[in-house]
Design goal:
The chain has 107 residues and is an all-alpha fold. Helices cover 59% and strands 0% of the residues.
């Protein structure tokens, strides 16, 4: 069984940056949820996402989507990406990597 250090040492610099941003977003979201639960009633909407550059959008999609089964643009939101950007990025990625029947295109 590998340790977290051994798993992380195999990631590229870009993959490490993506992982770091995700962890920061998850922490920020957790803090907002806890504050909301302690101060207000109702439903929590989630921490706002960010709008990464086009270059980073592609890197994030290439890193996240191959490891997600039956996913959608919502998966990118848990990586700190804005909902609107996540939706457009998912559509673009889906068109590039899947056929009209939803089957993965061969590389």
């Amino acid at each position: 069984m590998t340790s977290e250090w051994e798993e992380l040492e195999n990631l590229s610099k870009d993959e490490l940056i993506i992982e770091l941003v995700r962890q920061r977003w998850l922490y920020r979201d957790l803090r907002l949820q806890l504050r909301y639960m302690s101060e207000e009633e109702g439903q929590y909407a989630g921490a706002p996402g960010q709008v990464p550059s086009k270059e980073w959008q592609k890197k994030i999609a290439d890193y996240v989507f191959p490891n997600v089964k039956d996913g959608g643009y919502e998966d990118l939101m848990t990586w700190g990406v804005d909902e609107t950007v996540g939706e457009a990025l998912f559509d673009e990625y889906f068109k590039e990597h899947f056929d009209e029947n939803g089957k993965r295109r061969r590389a």
